[in-house]
Amino acid sequence: MSLPLFIYDLETLLAGGTPELPESGEVRLSGPEGRHAVSVKRIAQGERILLSDGYGSLATVLVTGTSGKDALSGQVEEITRTQISPTVTVFQALPKAERSELAVDLLTQGGADEIVAFEAERCVAKWVGSKRDKGLTKWRQAAIAAAKQSRRATVPQVTGPMNTAQVAAALTTFDLALILHEEAADPIRAALSTADVGKAARIAVIIGPEGGLSAQEVAVLQEAGATAIKLGPEVLRTATAGLAALAVIGSATARW
After folding, report:
1. Helical residues (DSSP H) of 115-214, grouped into ranges
2. Which of 116, 181, 192, 208 could pair with 228 as two cysteines, CB 3.0-4.6 Å apart?
3. pLDDT digit string, tens, across residues 13-67
């Protein structure tokens, strides 16, 4: 069984920053992650754990002692770094509240490298005012929890929200952009087979809301270089469509 994984400096990661994981020597894990390790997982002296900075660095740590119920200390034995190619950014339309965190959880399990909250025209949910920060925090927490469960060295960056025009402008930095659209003629495998996926370093996947993207939104995104595709004859929910798309992309590239 793989070693239990914990996030080093969780507060910094939740704030969108990059934790500075020590490459050698002594390391200390405290706060919520330390409490989870000591009080929930019952990690004790002599055991080994994994510490992640959320950006691809993963340290194997020998636990040398615990302090109270919420902290442990250890010695870094080895550190590895994960480099992923191609990277996949998912522009996820805001689902309804009960499916919002599920979408992020599934995208993280599927291997998304960045998740951008997308305020499409037909989104019922809106991140207005204080809801923006609350929404980002909840999505980041969901991404971190799913990454730990999946033993991922990287936690997807969670940013946004963006509107359709902002998403279209962002597409200029990608080598391949796909719009999941139920009215598209070509299936995703056809689009991937005709595109030079092997040379794509950055891939974007755009997922609309339950009501779908409007014709105008699709036109704007296509003008920016995106290709409209469908996953198959069935129409998946916005919270689950991303995972299906990531599985196909993963099998068509060197990711899997």
Report:
1. 131-150, 164-170, 188-194
2. 181
3. 888 788 888 888 999 999 889 999 889 889 999 999 999 988 888 999 999 988 8
| Cβ-contact 51, 6 below 8 angstroms | yes
The CATH architecture one would assign to domain 87-252 is 3-Layer(aba) Sandwich (3.40)
What gap in Å lies between CA 106 and CA 99, rounded to an integer?
A: 11
The C-alpha atoms of residue 55 and residue 140 are separated, in whole angstroms, by: 13
The whole-angstrom separation of Cα 14 and Cα 171 is 26
Architecture of domain 5-81: Beta Barrel (2.40)
- The domain ranges of the chain are 5-81, 87-252
**3-state helix/strand/coil string of 54-108:** EECEEEEEEEEEEECCCEEEEEEEEEEECCCCCEEEEEEECCCHHHHHHHHHHHH
CA dihedral over 121, 14, 24, 60, signed as positive or negative: negative
In the structure encoding, which two tokens stand for residue 147, read together? 């990454």
**Backbone dihedral region of 48: left (phi > 0), alpha (psi from -120 to 50 degrees) or beta?**
beta
pTM here is 0.85
Residue labelled with tokens 């990454």 = 147
What pairs with residue 178 in β-bridges? 205, 227
| Tens digits of pLDDT across the chain (256 residues) | 688 899 898 888 888 788 888 888 999 999 889 999 889 889 999 999 999 988 888 999 999 988 888 899 999 999 998 888 788 999 999 988 778 899 999 999 999 999 999 998 888 888 888 888 888 989 999 999 999 888 888 899 999 899 999 999 999 999 899 999 888 777 777 777 766 666 778 999 999 988 889 999 999 999 999 999 888 777 788 889 999 889 888 877 766 6
